């Protein structure tokens, strides 16, 4: 099998060095890297090109104008030639065994995608915490919406299965990954890897940490959930017509937040310091994994 590592890049050359070096350290070696640059500044593109110049396994493509993350990630898929694909943000990094641990699960023909545990890191990529919500999910549930981000990094998938979905929505400016997870979930089994394979970097320049874009993030998440319900032929949710629900993220999250689940979150909050559990669950911080 061949692995396509997909990177949608926009003005992240300074952080990309860590990502680049983590890819070179992979124990699984049959890979390519597809980078699509979304009209970064000239200096950023120059730095990026200089870094990958001497490695023919890296392929760089450029958007002629700034098109956004949905369009750019879709272009990554169009250029990919591997059997298995996985997106890596240019400011993040992989553990050395990330590809090897992921790809071996595809020996099971029923597996269409994999996902793992991951680390939360600071701006210098120093590990701070383990993201607590990653866990094995039940496949084939019509009303699974990944509301607590059980499925996230490091996410990989069969290219052949992706081609049988509606593919990446190029109009989305956020929630692109969430949309992709839910589409692939509908096509087969997602396999969980109980190992930390990804380092997610928190820094002020991160798109998903930009609170000024909160309203747009919620609109995109609502749209992703609405389209998911339509694909699954769900017209009513908790006895309410989905066309009459103003905010599906808030509505579903509130319905799923039973007394028991609230107690579980309080326990996690107490023993894990709570910072990152609340980071993904609190209403004012749900944008963390939406880029």
Automatic annotation (TrEMBL):
Among the GO molecular function terms of this UniProt record, one is: hexosyltransferase activity
Q: Which Pfam families has this protein been placed in?
A: Glycos_transf_2 (PF00535)
PANTHER family, alphabetized? GLYCOSYLTRANSFERASE (PTHR22916), UDP-GLCNAC:BETAGAL BETA-1,3-N-ACETYLGLUCOSAMINYLTRANSFERASE-LIKE PROTEIN 1 (PTHR22916:SF3)
Which InterPro entries does the record cross-reference, listed alphabetically?
Glyco_trans_2-like, Nucleotide-diphossugar_trans
- Where does the Glycosyltransferase 2-like domain start and stop, copy by copy? 4-163
Alphabetical keyword list:
Transferase
Q: What is this protein called?
A: Glycosyltransferase family 2 protein
């Amino acid at each position: 099998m061949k692995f396509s590592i997909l990177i949608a890049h926009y003005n992240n050359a300074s952080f990309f060095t860590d990502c680049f070096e983590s890819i070179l350290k992979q124990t699984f070696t049959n890979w390519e890297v597809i980078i699509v640059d979304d009209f970064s500044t000239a200096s950023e593109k120059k730095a990026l090109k200089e870094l990958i110049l001497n490695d023919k396994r890296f392929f760089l493509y450029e958007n002629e104008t700034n098109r956004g993350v949905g369009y750019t990630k879709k272009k990554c898929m169009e250029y990919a030639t591997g059997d298995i694909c996985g997106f890596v943000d240019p400011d993040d990094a992989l553990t050395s065994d990330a590809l090897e641990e992921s790809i071996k699960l595809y020996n099971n023909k029923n597996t269409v995608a994999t996902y793992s545990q991951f680390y939360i890191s600071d701006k210098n990529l120093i590990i701070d915490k383990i993201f607590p919500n990653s866990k094995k999910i039940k496949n084939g549930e019509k009303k699974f919406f990944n509301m607590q981000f059980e499925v996230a990094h490091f996410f990989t998938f069969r290219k052949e299965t992706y081609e049988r979905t509606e593919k990446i929505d190029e109009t989305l400016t956020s929630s692109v990954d969430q949309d992709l997870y839910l589409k692939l979930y509908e096509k087969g089994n997602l396999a969980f890897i109980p190992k930390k394979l990804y380092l997610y970097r928190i820094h002020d320049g991160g798109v998903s940490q930009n609170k000024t874009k909160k309203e747009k993030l919620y609109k995109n998440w609502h749209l992703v959930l609405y389209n998911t319900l339509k694909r699954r032929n769900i017209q009513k949710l908790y006895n309410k017509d989905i066309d009459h629900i103003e905010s599906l993220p808030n509505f579903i999250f509130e319905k799923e937040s039973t007394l028991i689940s609230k107690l579980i979150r309080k326990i996690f909050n107490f023993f894990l310091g709570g910072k990152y559990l609340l980071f993904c669950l609190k209403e004012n911080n749900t944008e963390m994994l939406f880029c």
